[in-house]
Amino acid sequence: QVQLVESGGGLVQPGGSLRLSCEASGFTFSTSAMSWRRQAPGKGLEWGSGIYSDGSTNYEETVKGRFAISRDNAKNTVYLQMNSLKPEDSAVYYCGLPIPPGLFDFASWGQGTQVTVSS
Question: How does pLDDT run across 7-25, given as a tens digit for each residue?
């Protein structure tokens, strides 16, 4: 079955950086799009970024230019490099396997990793 395991979250100061990782198994990773979304306390799920199997990417406006999604097909892993972090980026971050052909609705997702941006 599909398994997605996120890691790399933590506490970081405003303006800092973090890199999240998501190791995937149970499906053909190299031919699958992958996405990240997040949920802040008291708020709904917010899609943030996605990457297609050909490496093309798409970002939500609030993270464009600060976050970068990438993938390593040899390691079945998708990454989210987060730079210039803001307190409003604090959330639980989930990687997910989108329902094709889009990036926004997830067929499966991981347990999440907490990111806290605070001084």
Answer: 999 999 999 999 999 999 9
